[in-house]
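My hope is that you will study the record closing this message with an eye to the fold:
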Amino acid sequence: MEKNQALHVYIKEEILNRIKSNIYKKGEKIPTELELCKDFDVSRTTVRTALNQLTLEGYLVRHQGKGTYVAEQKVKQTLSHTVKRYSDQVAVQGKRAEIVLVGIQVIPATELLQQTLQVAPNDPVQRIERVRKANGEPTQYEIAYIPWSVAPGVTKEHAETSLYAAMKDVFQIHIAKTTEHVEIAFADERIANQLDYEEGLPCFYIETIAEDANGKIVEYSRSFFRGDKTNFVIERNYPNE
């Protein structure tokens, strides 16, 4: 568990990881609150708080008298793409952009990271935690995961400018494709702290997988955007057939 992380936040993350790595499969019943209490060695209140948040975010669904089940997959929509950096996107709106590094650490690949990044068990992965700001106000909290074998030794300077630019210019990795999944989430204690936001308020949540020209996955990231500070533009071109 990360330092200063609330127990219910940790348990929420662990259950979410089990859902995303297909340990808890879509439509299947998850362990009872009592079983989860024993599994995590925590109180029922702590487990219930985590389950409530996951239910509000649409990952779980509760059936009266039957238990809690993993929700069916949400409908996906594709957003239009842009190659502009965050600083450029913010600058054209007349605001000053800033990226602040919260921390970089090398961790062994968890089961979720093994599946998502297609790496071996316990392979070293760089976990890069950042906050993006506009005019000094936090707008986005991001956790990015990059295999050590892809870009060994990402630095503070890389993280506080552009990771994608560093991967191209320093590590000769060209990001050819990103796949983004957008959902609504609710700020837990950690997210609220990083975004200077009230706990429980809605956030946009974007999960991104980046691939190189050969289809190799080179980055996986999870980003939370303040609902009161961010909106998204979707632009679609329709061919004249």
The domain at 7-70 is CATH 1.10.10.10 (Arc Repressor Mutant, subunit A). The chain has a mean pLDDT of 88. The longest helix spans residues 7-20. DSSP finds eight helices and eight strands in the chain.
